[in-house]
Amino acid sequence: MSENELHPTTAEAAAPVIEDDPIEVRRAKRAAIIAAGGNPYGNAFDYTAHAAQIEADHAGLADGESTEVAVSVAGRVLAKRVQGKITFLTLRDTTGDIQLFCRVNALGEDAYDQLKDLDLGDWIGAHGCVMRTRRGQLSVAVEAFELLSKAIRPLPEKFHGLSNKEVRYRQRYVDLVVNTEVRDTFEKRFKVISAIRRFMEDNGFYEVETPILHAIPGGANARPFETHHNALDREFYLRIATELHLKRLLVGGFERVFEIGRQFRNEGMDPYHNPEFTTMEAYQAFSDLEGMKSLTKGFVQAAALAACGTLQIQYQGHRIDLGGEWRDATMIDLINEQIDEPVSIHMERAELERIARANGVGQIEDAWGAGKIIAELFEACVEHTLVQPTFVCEHPLEVSPLAKKKPGEPELTQRFELFICGHEYANAFNELNDPIDQAERFRAQVEAKDLGDDEAMGYDADYIRALEYGMPPAGGVGIGIDRLVMLLTDAESIRDVLLFPHMRNEAPAAGERSASGAAAASASARTAAAAATAATTTASACDRVAGDPAAACAPIDFSKVAIEPLFQDEVDFDTFSASDFRAVKVKECVAVPKSKKLLQFTLDDGTDADRVILSGIHAYYEPEELVGRTLIAITNLPPRKMMGISSCGMLLSAIHQEPGEGGELEERLNLLMVSDRIPAGAKLY
């Protein structure tokens, strides 16, 4: 760090302190330390003990007893209590909290005054001997300390609770400081990945690394992210799966390979999906589906024991037994257990479509065959019923382009998916190693893409060439690491187990300052010109454009907005009065599984019972940003089933059109939100 970087500017040193602005107060302290020749962002510190170690080593120390055991500790100050000539600090390090017992007699007047001037959030190092106070608190009696890093921004007083989840996801660095259970979740994640890696290595698998940039998206049905390679002047795709490269290694003679790595799918986000996620895929030559079942059970149990210490776990109110025998059943048998009319892969498509519609399957595409309709029936009627571990076998060929056909049943495949508590965790195949068959399936995928299926795979000619050299019979399995961590930490959303989940652009709520507005407001203490700029910026930030966070801080231009003409037909007053418009509070909001559009709202409508309403607005809002909002709903519409869920009412939105990037008009939607001062159930007139 240069001298210029360390010392404040003249304007900063002369800046008046705004006493009720904690950031300005801390900036002034920083400047004072530098002016006095100190360094508020210290150097390396040689600590000798962690809080947990001190606690373990001195568990038997009696109340009021002191030791001559000298330790050096380092961490963040999370609490401060000044009592005259004694100050108590709570120091948090990577293992836990330890109390620092600080006396003016031990530190001296000057050092003690500096210690009292510390702020919550500051990093310090301290030296002293271990003791226990008369009240029984294990402590370090501080003889010397040094400031390691000055915190300019204060830690929030309250940083937990559902209403702050979006802030917690965005500011994970603060979440980890304030909420210790979050750190526990990620420590379990580390243990899960480590346990799976050890299990695979102990079973003779080599860990390998394959490309992230793919010339052709393959290995799964998903929409890829696209990118451009400048040097080669060609388009590439971020990988959606590691499968095809790993199986190339079987062709090359490796017998057992696996990879733990990131996948990227350009899809919607919901509690079980993030566009960037982690999987483990493994392939074993000369194995089959039964071998993959044994392997899957083994690494899942190893992960559970490492993270939880038991195979009996709790997930979202369900007790899950990961020990013992896991159920094994076919997809069609499971469907027939749940519906009144039995189905089979040999039925006419029209009959299958009729049964599917009668059992809650929503939109059915013309391009879907019997296999795809059966897969959709399974999703709608069966998935949520599979609580205990279940291997679901014999998937239709139409949705399994990389699996071997079932002998005697060419419309079905040798494939399983592992379901636990209504969600898929692993996917496995008897791997297809016939290059002629594989080429035909790739061509079918290309045809599906031409018909509008943007999740279909491309034709990978190099992979076909590899198979033509001969790939041994093999079993393969992939598992979502994030979902497994969710299961083992009882997390309700994938964002709870990702350190830095993807979010929409950050935008301030009404009346709050944006990041740039806050910076301008801070600068207003130093120059009148900056103050004027801040006032302008803050004023323009007061109106939030729903679904368009980038426009949140800009003046709104309505000149190009297209509004639908007013209805000319009159509605009689009695008919209009029959609609019951109410203010409703959003208690919970989640994405509907398997739907890219629907959000499911649990609402307080002023009655004793929760109201559930589904709304197709996921393209404009993420669930967490709506929790706690007050909305307007029509509450006396007849219930309507969507995706098998009964929706009781309708939320009101305002819709208009604006020119998009290509100049064509695109729809914009703003959910109607009103003041939180309006109580739930208030009627609109």
TrEMBL record:
A GO molecular-function annotation: lysine-tRNA ligase activity
TRNA-binding domain location: 575-685
Principal localisation: cytoplasm
Keywords tagged on the record: Aminoacyl-tRNA synthetase, ATP-binding, Cytoplasm, Ligase, Magnesium, Metal-binding, Nucleotide-binding, Protein biosynthesis, RNA-binding, tRNA-binding
Record has Hydrolase as a keyword: no
Localization (cell): Cytoplasm
Cofactor note: Binds 3 Mg(2+) ions per subunit.
Cofactor(s) it depends on: Mg(2+)
Keyword presence, Zinc-finger: no
Residues that bind Mg(2+) 2: E424
PROSITE patterns tied to this protein: AA_TRNA_LIGASE_II, TRBD
Top-rank taxon, per record: Bacteria
Catalyses which reaction(s): tRNA(Lys) + L-lysine + ATP = L-lysyl-tRNA(Lys) + AMP + diphosphate
Entry GO terms, CC: cytosol
Family annotation (Pfam families): tRNA-synt_2, tRNA_anti-codon, tRNA_bind
GO biological process: lysyl-tRNA aminoacylation
Residues holding Mg(2+) 1: E417, E424
EC number assigned by the record: 6.1.1.6
Quaternary data: Homodimer.
NCBIfam families documented for this protein: lysS_bact, PRK00484.1
Name the record gives this protein: Lysine--tRNA ligase
Organism field: Berryella wangjianweii
Gene: lysS
